[in-house]
Amino acid sequence: MEVCYQLPVLPLDRPVPKHVLSRRGAISFSSSSSLFGAPDPRQLSQRRGAISYDSSDQTALYIRMLGDVRVRSQVGFEPERRGSHPYLCVDFRTLHSRGETVGPVSGRRVHRLFSFQRHLHTSRLVHSATTCSHNPLHILDEDYLGQAKCMLEKVGSWNFDIFLFDRLTNGNSLVTLTFHLLNQYGLIELFQLDMVKLRRFLVMVQEDYHSQNPYHNAVHAADVTQAMYCYLREPKLSKSLTSCDILLGLLAAASHDLDHPGVNQPFLIKTNHYLAALYRNTSVLENHHWRSVVGLLRETGLFSHLPAEDGLNMERQLGSLILATDISRQNEYLSKFRLHLDQDDLCLGNASHRHFILQMALKCADICNPCRPWELSKQWSEKVTSEFFQQGDIEKKHKLEVSQLCDSQTNTVGDIQIGFMTYVVEPLFSEWARFSDTRLSQTMLGHLGLNKASWSGLRAEGSLDESEPDPDPPPEPVSGQGPGPCLGSGPATATAAEEPTTRTLAQGSQEF
Ligand SMILES: [Zn+2]
């Protein structure tokens, strides 16, 4: 199978707007081979001024600057010329729409994918943001302004409905929520962040999530940011974290899945995607998320007023936090956490210990869906499964081996969730509750047990029909299957059984 890589290009039939040119720099490329063959570091250092990068940094930023992740293939398609590019490049996301048949991609659909539209949208939002930079809610539709504001007053509630908030903010939940939290903590003033740069940065972060992804989109990022905020407020953290820790924690949460392609690392590796080569098949997505946000930080100059060493340190710490979300490294982090708790030697006056706790908090926030109330948790479960199955469908269409958990014929939402809860979520949140034994931790474990019981109940009833949406309200949790029995018995605490299953889930699909 041959996989081609190609630069996203602006549609040839439209003039390139000046703001796009200025944002993307004046570097032009005559062919895609100049990008992936031998990027010229000199061009990048000229463009980025005096900041120096190592070569992998440069390549990553280079890719970041030229657009979002595209997974393209010509398998099964007749080559077709479009413009000066001799490939038929299929973005797998175009195959996601239900009912679309596999076939040559129309010009309209190809055009729709290019970043031009994204920048038009970004430009509009940035303009809006710059003209009303003192109030983040001015970009909201007036009708929903009051309701969204009302929701923000309870942004620390574990029942916070991010889906509703996203609707009320007209799809701007990530920008609105993150800005609100940074403002509420006084971080904008404390770090003397330029309001226009900050808004531009947040809008670009939000726009660089792929709204086509059923799960890994900006709403997931907003949800993780809201969960992170809940953890930052926990007594042990709130009394020890510095302002810098909080700023990093919130920014890492907001950007931790930036530019996620909607497929997992094994898929990128087996299709020889350039990101897999760039990051040597190691934490491929997480490295890309990190480099992407570094690219945005430098592009917007959000930290440009800080001493260079401080800015670089922030970038490194952001990377360390985002890389910790690689679920395939779950056991590594969990073992370290467990050891600290067993030895009772965590000292949050120690910067490295605080950083480790921030990593664990972000990991919890990233996979906290099963710990939310059922109405929210169920929606997330369906969305992530939808993304898995879409990947499986792509793999089938291209005659690739179907990744574990991605085959809609052999998996159900409930089965995937029960396995995920048992082997990944419960062990992590049980340790988190040991560390932070609070009402919130008990609430999360309670929901986890109830949700698991609900999925078990649905499975037992045989009432799950994966081809149709579930029209019935969820059943009440089965009596006697509350949080206690679910969490305190069986494989949830069986370390020996945990490892292979965790790895299986990670390799299968759980790239949260
Ligand atoms: Zn995530």
UniProtKB/TrEMBL annotation:
Keyword hit for Nuclease: no
Compositional bias per record (Polar residues), positions renumbered to this chain: 503-512
Ranges annotated as biased composition (Acidic residues): 463-473
EC number: 3.1.4.-
Binding site for Zn(2+) 2: 257
PROSITE patterns xrefs: PDEASE_I_1 (PS00126), PDEASE_I_2 (PS51845)
Organism name: Alosa alosa
Catalyzed reactions: 3',5'-cyclic AMP + H2O = AMP + H(+)
InterPro entries in UniProt: HD/PDEase_dom, PDEase, PDEase_catalytic_dom, PDEase_catalytic_dom_sf, PDEase_CS
Domain of life assignment: Eukaryota
Active site: 216 (proton donor)
Co-factor(s): a divalent metal cation
Coiled coil: none
UniProt binding sites for AMP: 216-220, 257, 366, 417
One Gene Ontology MF term: metal ion binding
UniProt GO BP: signal transduction
Residue span(s) of domain PDEase: 140-462
Entry protein name: Phosphodiesterase
UniProtKB keywords: cAMP, Hydrolase, Metal-binding
Residue numbers binding Zn(2+) 1: 220, 256-257, 366
Family: Belongs to the cyclic nucleotide phosphodiesterase family. PDE7 subfamily.
SMART domains given in the database record: HDc
